[in-house]
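[step 3/7] fold_predict: job queued, chain A
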Amino acid sequence: MIKEKINIKAALAAAILSAASIMLLWFTLFNIPFLPVFFGIGVNIPVLFVLFSYGWQSGLAAALLAGLFSGLVLPAEPALLLAFFFFLPALFTGWLLGLQTNSGQAKPGKNAFGEQNLPQFYPLPAAIFQLALIIAFVTIAVLFYSFSNADKAQAFNMVTSQIADFIAQKNFYNMPAQSGDIHNILQHLLPVLLAVSLALYGFLFQLAAIYCAMRLARRNNSLRRPFGYWPADLRLPPMALFLFIGLWLASYFIGNAAFTAAPTLTLCVNTILAVLAAGFCVSGLAVLHQTARGSWSWLRFLIYICLFSLVLTPIIFFGLVIMGLFATPFPSARQGRKPPLP
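[step 4/7] structure written:
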């Protein structure tokens, strides 16, 4: 990594923008449905832009200042949890992407964009894999901390009881419903669903923020590493495939017994599986972008329409996951087509 002095002006500007996004996210979280989701991507883009443009030290300063500014307005605990959830994965992944391998030796020849004599940086697939793992870790840590609080645990039990009573009254299963049994099931199921949803959101929006920040830094001619060609580079390494298959088989053979006997283990396994599935889904989208070009470009728009239609979303999601799984063992296919010059 190139060592640079901290750019105070850039770090301060990024901190103000990131802190404003955190505040907007928090103040709209319980008032405006779905809108806070989109503020999440704005939290990290300024910090990552500074990190990719001026170095990791400037990015770290921007993240610390953003956490401090948001803590002056928001309650201390939500500000700390939001900063931990957003900034820790962003800083770690940005640091990885700034690392130079092979002692910073230049790579001979040209890449697909005509750039030559470029230093070797940390590979994007390995960085994305570690981003997925740290998102899973951060999600699990945030949920465990939240549920360890007595007030939050009591509020969660109250919500669970209300949902259980609603299901029992509606009698969805055409049989005498027992609210206690339903409450017991929901008490184990809802934390898993919450963890999976939070991990998916965190991974997808962190990856989108990294892409946008690198794109902006490249437009600004300040990006330290080559931008590359993401449709060809956006893959997960084979280790992710082995981990995904191993965890999926373990969860399958353990079965429903561990669902109530070991809820913590179930939550952790499902969170990691969900975030890896999101990684393979994004990899499948990258394969689609790499192959469906020219006269086949309409296929990409059709897939996106189906993906956001909600009705076909599960089918398209699993189809893209399968594409990403099959693309993982074949890195040579990434250089199959040269991208157009930007």
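[step 5/7] annotate
The two ends are 26 Å apart (CA to CA).
Residues 23 and 73 are 8 Å apart (CA to CA).
exit 0
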